[in-house]
Amino acid sequence: MIEQFTPNWHEIFDDKKLDFFVKYGYMILDDCFGKKTLNQLQKESELLSYQNAHLTHGQRLTDIRGDSTVWINENCPYGLAYLKDIERLGLFFNQVFFTNIKRGEAHYARYPVGHGYQWHRDNPAGRNERIISAVYYLNNDWGDNDGGEISLVDKTNITHQISPKADRLVIFDSNLLHQVEKTHRERYSIATWLRCDDIL
Asked: What CATH number has the domain spanning 12-55+62-195?
């Protein structure tokens, strides 16, 4: 049975967190969905058939981007429940920031040992459909020497390294520069984008 995860975004994003997000453009939420939801998503992520991810125009350059992915759809029921909850976050952002978010998209991502994703923004080539990016991490017992951090340059031009530990959700402005550091063990996550365009 699939249960709605449904965090209360109004309670999570109090005035202090909202002010922080406006100033710095990112937010880290630990213990976001809880162990049961985490376990459901972990199990689903392990059963999927991953495909090598590509850059714009279908390029596959593993020295730039080394992950493999599975887009979340009706074949990923737990992932789809997660995505619906992130879309509720988009509705909340519409209320407080007038962001005009219309929909979300997400994929499971798996990084093998020795790979990462070099510096980039989530709106390539001057596009602006992606408003908010979010990454939810599925990695139990992640250690300081395991690598795989997301390095992110905030709105004040300060760089942060954020560990991909389990049940952590990192939310950030899609125009912020970021990269995934090379991982020293297999690394799983869900990458998510809240968009202002309609489905084509």
From this structure: 2.60.120.620
